[in-house]
């Protein structure tokens, strides 16, 4: 049986701060948006604990609770929030065709991509178990909880250097775990960490295990040249080995950089395809904050509204 086709004005793909903010604006503008949540409803914030840097929450808020608030606010103005994963798109036709869960076919006048990015992880069992209990992939989000304490960070790119420097401002000591004898980061960022007396770089070092039952109490690392094993007494363990934008299904249509981040026309959320807009971490590898994602979500809804008005 051929799938049933639904026609929508604004289809929003993804349910992080960018997607829900786009939904709030699109719904209030009378565009009857439909939002598909994706496989992790609420996005990356649902795997963090306290969010203390989102304006408007003076006492902080738990990440999952904040995303519930976003969803309720979007639904209050009539957004249809649905659980489902977009599995295929065709942006070469107007209206744009989007398939959800390989079953539902949607024809959308405008599409707002807010599929976000996912942090890469080392893949250790202890890393998964202690995630949110001392293990984090975001120093800016969680560094504050380790004020005055000793922490470790894995990675040797610009993000790891930037986050190590950020942590050094807050923490007592930062071990930087680098798997090779050189860093990938730009020279200037490397110099910054090497010249910081609070940062100790452990070259040729890999993490065997993160230690602790209910919270991080240390990390066991091994030097991959000398095979020397050591335990670092740390209470925070940060992973900064890159992010992966969740943009794979759009790659045949949408212009992206080499890492898969969607290219938008500067100062807007417009992509190379008319009527398709991108916001949040799917197009931003630099700021990656809830509040910046929400800001670009608002921009995407306004861009979609103006686009639809220009077609009338
Ligand atoms: P990168 O891909 O540049 O670096 C990832 C780092 O993680 C590499 O050092 C890599 O090691 C290491 N790594 C990967 N997998 C593992 C693993 N399993 N175990 C241990 N280490 C691992 O990611 P970034 O997030 O740092 O940067 C992404 C992009 O964003 C870059 O283009 C960067 O320049 C840019 N950026 C720019 C900033 C700025 O200009 N202010 C700030 C932040 C990011 P190896 O080198 O051995 O492969």
Q: Which tags fit this structure?
A:
312 residues, alpha/beta, FAD/NAD(P)-binding domain, 19 strands, 27% strand, binds NADPH dihydro-nicotinamide-adenine-dinucleotide phosphate, oxidoreductase, redox-active center, Ferredoxin-NADP_redctase_2, Thioredoxin reductase
Tell me the name of the CATH class of the largest domain: Alpha Beta
Q: What is the CATH H-level superfamily of the largest domain? A: FAD/NAD(P)-binding domain
Kindly state the number of beta strands: 19
Main beta-sheet strand count, sense and barrel state? 7 strands, mixed
What is the molecular shape?
A: elongated
CATH architecture call of the largest domain: 3-Layer(bba) Sandwich
Structural class: alpha/beta
User: What's the rounded overall pLDDT mean?
Assistant: 95
The ordered H/E elements are EHEEEHEEEEEHEHEHEHEEEEEEEH
Radius of gyration: 21 Å
Give the names of the bound compounds: NADPH dihydro-nicotinamide-adenine-dinucleotide phosphate
| Strand portion | 25-35%
Helical residue percent band? 25-40%
Number of domains: 2
Tell me what the structure shows:
The chain has helices spanning 17-28, 63-76, 125-129, 139-142, 158-170, 187-194, 290-311; strands at 5-13, 34-36, 50-51, 61-62, 80-82, 86-90, 96-100, 104-113, 117-119, 135-136, 150-154, 173-177, 199-202, 205-211, 218-223, 229-232, 236-239, 243-245, 276-278. By secondary structure, the chain is an alpha/beta fold. The chain has two domains: 4-118 and 243-311, FAD/NAD(P)-binding domain (3-Layer(bba) Sandwich); 121-239, 3-Layer(bba) Sandwich (FAD/NAD(P)-binding domain), CATH 3.50.50.60. Helix 5 (158-170) links the parallel strand 11 and strand 12 (173-177). The longest helix has 22 residues, at 290-311. The protein is elongated and about 65 Å long. The two termini are 34 Å apart. The structure holds NADPH dihydro-nicotinamide-adenine-dinucleotide phosphate. NADPH dihydro-nicotinamide-adenine-dinucleotide phosphate (NDP) is lined by residues 122, 154-160, 162, 179-180, 184, 241-243, 285.
